[in-house]
Each structure stands twice: as C-alpha cells, then as structure tokens.
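Hi R.,

Here's the chain you asked about this morning:
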Amino acid sequence: MIPGKILVSTAYLPPVEYFSVISSAETVQIEREENYLKQTYRNRCYILSAHGTQSLSVPVYMGSLHKTPVKEIKIDYSKRWQQVHLRTLITSYGSSPYFEYYFDIIEKSITRNNSYLIDLNTELTESLLEMLNIEKPIAYTDNFEPVGENEIDFRYKISPKEKTCHIQKEYMQVFNQGGKFVPRLSIIDLIFNTGPDAGQYL
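And the predicted structure, written out as tokens:
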C-alpha cells in the first residue's frame, strides 16, 4: 500500500491506472488549485469502439487568456457533447456483459448538467469507486503544492502524454481487434466488461 495520502488530478471517467493508484493508497486528495491543463484526463477519456481507441472530451470554457484554476473551469453546454458521449458508449459497450447494470448510473451523472468540470468529475469518480467496491477518504486540496519528486504525487504522472509504469492485467474486451488487448482505457471499459470482478484487475 502507498503510505499516507496520494495526490491526483481531477479526471473525467479516468483510466484504470488512476483507480489502481487510489486502491493502493490510504487517503486521496484531488487537486483543485492547479491551473487547468488541456489535452489531459481532466476533461477526456479513452474508450474502445469498433474503430479502435476513441477519445471523448468534455468541452469547457477557458475564460480569459490567463491561466484558470481547474476548480473554476465551466462546462460548455452549447456543444452537444452529452448526447455524443452517451450514444458512443451505447454503440461501443451496449453488447458488453455488464453494460445494463452500470450505464444508467453513468448517464445520470453526465446528464445532470453540473456547471463545473470538477463537480462532474467528482460525481462520476465517486460512483465508479462504488462500482469497484473501493472505500477511500477523498478530499480536495486547499492550496497548490509545486511539482517535485514526491512519489505520492500522481497529478502529472497519470497522463495520456506520459509513459506509464502501471502493468495492466488483461481482460476480455468487446472490440479488441485480433485478440490484442488494449491498455490505458477508461475504467468504464473494465467495468462494463468484467462487472463486479473489476476491482480484481486493478
């Protein structure tokens, strides 16, 4: 178990690695004081469709040209992202073994129209932790700690732009082409395919 607390970014339907780190820690802090970073898991996830790996992004208002704290990032509902995301999930995972057991929970959070990205992410993350039967104390940061070599700081280590040291346990995927397992997908790929056994693959 990772000693003490760990520090992670807010994330939209985060990858398996994110929850593997959480499950190994004692307590978790979600960063809310950092400046928002584009093209990260903070507003996007990766799923497996019939056409291969596909990203789903939540559109956000960036406000001014100045750096904006992630806690102040608002979701842009002028885009039809909710319909796109839900339709894509149905198309990609509708035939997965446990889709009907969990999709409604995901749908309710996505359609709740949270104003802020961090609120949407937190609601989804809490629901996903319940699906995984993971009970961990989770809190927000109150101030920004500079990036260092701290082994418990995963804010920028868990990123689609960075290599990962996480070794993913393989499981059956609906659309893995030629039987080749696709790692680093959203946790929902694991949950829809393995259901109550998902926690054993972290």
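The chain has a mean pLDDT of 93.

Let me know if you need anything else.
M.
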